[in-house]
Design a protein that fits this description.
The chain is mainly β. The protein has two helices and nine strands.
Length: 147
């Protein structure tokens, strides 16, 4: 799988985020466009996607993530909740591509500064993995008007 397609899949599967405050979700509500997605591989190498083709739409407790590609648009939906300051849990509830991940829950680190949202997730494989396996994904997104 080439990087742009893999970045889209990882963004959809891994990138929900928000801020911790009195009502953590309120800082996230609305739409965000990913301006940079960085995949870190076990080998130590990394790949970046700054195409801006992936978006997030946050509603109270719900998130929709979409990425456009030459093969079409991939969309995934999640339930989310802030677990503790700077961290949230997201459970995939639907996907047009990675149906094997439906029901999976992952923890994400996040921060919001103005109209910028940063997220990160680290993968802890249970067994040794190949050097080409993604072990961390970082995303930076900017707030945008919802369509």
């Amino acid at each position: 799988m080439k990087f742009p397609a893999l970045a889209s899949v990882l963004f959809l599967a891994l990138v929900p985020s928000w801020s911790h405050a009195e009502a953590p979700e309120s800082a996230l509500l609305g739409c965000w466009r990913a301006v940079n997605i960085v995949q870190h591989y076990k080998s130590g190498s990394k790949a970046e996607d700054a195409s801006g083709r992936c978006t997030l739409h946050f509603k109270l407790g719900q998130l929709e993530s979409s990425c456009a590609s030459a093969a079409g648009t991939v969309t995934s939906t999640y339930r989310y909740r802030v677990e503790r300051p700077g961290f949230y849990l997201a459970t995939m509830t639907g996907s047009t591509f990675r149906t094997s991940l439906i029901g999976s829950t992952r923890e994400y680190q996040y921060s919001i500064a103005g109209d910028r949202l940063k997220t990160a997730i680290d993968f802890q494989p249970a067994e040794p993995v190949a050097p080409s396996v993604t072990v961390r994904v970082e995303t930076e997104a900017v707030r945008m008007a919802c369509p």
